[in-house]
Amino acid sequence: MKLNYRTINKLFQSIFDGAPLKAYDNKSKLALLDTMGNSLKHIESVRLANRYRNPYYSSKEMKLEIDYSDDCFSLYFDGSDLRIKDWYNDVPVSDVEQLIQFLDAVKGKYEEAAGRAAKREKILGLKDKAIESRLKTLAKEQRFAYKLRKYQNKVKLIVQIDEVNGIEIDIPYNRFQEVLSGVGELIRNIIDLYEQGLKFKIKPVQHVYRWKGYSRKGKDI
Q1: Cα separations (Å) of 65 from 48, 54, 79, 161?
Q2: Neighbours of 209 (CB within 10 A)
Q3: 106, 49 in Cβ contact below 8 A?
Q4: d(Cα 212, Cα 219) in Å, to the nearest integer?
Q5: How far apart are CA 96 and CA 105, in angstroms?
Q6: pTM, whole model, 2 decimals?
Q7: What is the pLDDT of residues 16-27, one digit of tens each?
């Protein structure tokens, strides 16, 4: 799981302010990165990776990589200034307490996201059971064989119409009751028509002009 970049942006903007810590030579920079790393390594779920052990590295190569789950941050020097960055932010670091506060806030956002995900999974689980129960009844009533494939926001219903062909119907989770209310009779009608030799396709028709009959806008054409 990875936090939304807007969430991370707000944390950067709200926590990191003030003048940056400074170090003017490689020895001092190494010592400061060591101090930061020692202060952070005991934080639960934080992984650190040193990128600065060679004292002959340039300032730009002296980094402490800080990973929290799938989010990654780099503590580095821009000239003499200590800064932290990710893909979207690059801000000065004034003290180690800012880093600890930031990582605590990141942890809190992960916990909130995990809670929302668990709640959503519970709700989708209930909807899955309702969909499966209704389709089991419809399949018995309308005499069809089916299979379900689950996606993030929908269930795809695959209905067998002969030994090699089938139809697919998307059932969005947020409209599953509405869709299922008429799908059984629709499937039975499609299978019956197919068995009578009628074949049809649903395909894009935006290139077709000069329609006849009655338009979907409610006007004669």
Answers
A1: 6, 15, 18, 56
A2: 6
A3: no
A4: 11
A5: 14
A6: 0.68
A7: 988 999 998 888
